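Priority: low. Protein: Transport permease protein. Input follows.
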Amino acid sequence: MKNKTGVLLGRLMRNILRSPDTIITVAIMPIMMLLLFVYVFGGAIETGTANYVNYLVPGILLITIASGVAYTSLRLFNDVKSGLMARFTTMPIKRSSILWAHVLTSLVSNTIAVFVVLLVALLMGFRSSAGLTDWFAVAGILGLFTLALTWLAVIPGLTAKSMEGATAYSYPLIFLPFISSAFVPTETMPKFVRAFAENQPVTSIVNSIRALLGEESVNSDIWLALAWCFGIMIIAYFIAIKVYNRQLN
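Result:
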């Protein structure tokens, strides 16, 4: 059994390049939210920072990724329903290559979408004093977050009965940053909301990215962020592989 992940990745990336509206669609919603919160709500939100767009960008990047991974579910669903997945499994290729091709495609396409959103944020006044090492750390966290959510996306992509079912799981992921420190400090929230906001994965990830971009101390948030990303990724990976193997047998 040969590992043909690169060949399969090339097939998926060619499909995306033929339909660049996929990446545009992923980037549009976060960009609209960025514009709305900065230019409409920004003046009424007190975050203790001089530049609200700097405060907002980390959460918007996570929303971009959460929007993008829904397309992984959709692509997998289409491969399963069209019978293409079944044909792939009869070929002399490593079975896991099929899933990894979808996961790596998600990583590449989401990287492009995040880059587009960052460019718009720069035009809106986003600035960072972060050094090269800090930017690499931010890229690493965003990459892990993308892999974690993508492996989650694989599960409904393999099991959904409809196109809507394959993508619906992403809606709670997009909503999650709203109940975190992504848009406002958690100290401003009611106690029961604050308790949830401070103990869910998005807050620690957002706080870590914000601290790195502002050259501030990341304290324990970065370890919580890494723990959440690795934990979700490992659990989702094993569930996805189990579902995949069960469908093939």
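The longest helix spans residues 95-123. The chain has a mean pLDDT of 85.
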